Amino acid sequence: MAEKDGILSFKKLNEFNYVSWKQDMIACLTSKGLSDFIDSKHVLAAGSTPADTRQFNINKSKAGGMIFLGIEDKLKCILDGISEPDKHWDKLAKTYEPKSKARIARLLGQFHLAQMQPNKSIILFLNRIRQLSRDLELVGKKIDDSDLAYQMLCTLPPQYDVIVSQIYKWPNGDMIPTKVEEALIEEYENLKSRDQCTKSSNGDNALSTTGIDR
């Protein structure tokens, strides 16, 4: 998410990616010590020296410039006449932050219907569930940790049936997303290892059979 040669390394803001863009931009500003400038309460301290004032204004300009460069060209007109980075931030939030009931319903549907496809990476699936949960929280619909943990379990393919059955026997206090993730990822690695061993064994058997035929 760093800036390289004046170009941000994450996707610019468009009409559809505000939630992920906001997270990326905050991380980018934070990495450069500029995230305070999107808060209207961040002002120059009383009694600041001329050098402090100059540096404050330089950093404020940098923050505003990064936000401006981080949006697609066709959207930059939204910020016309606005120079302060905190006002940039507020304007974009008011324009694109999705908090409508339709948006919440759509995200809830995606969250509850998310399914992991057989032979796909469970790590990507769990990240998807986590991202949907964060998106819902940003629009004011926080998913309870236990609900998040159960959602990670209830739509997995059959090869995870054994570990899922074991997890369902855990005490209620252990049914938290981080522990469920750890158990599922460990099982994913075990399944991969067993699959590789099976393929290797089948290959050896094929070679052995070929040798006998000769």
Automatic annotation (TrEMBL):
Biased composition (Polar residues): 198-214
One Pfam family cited in the UniProt record for this chain: Retrotran_gag_2
Disordered: region residues: 195-214
Name used for this protein in its record: Uncharacterized protein
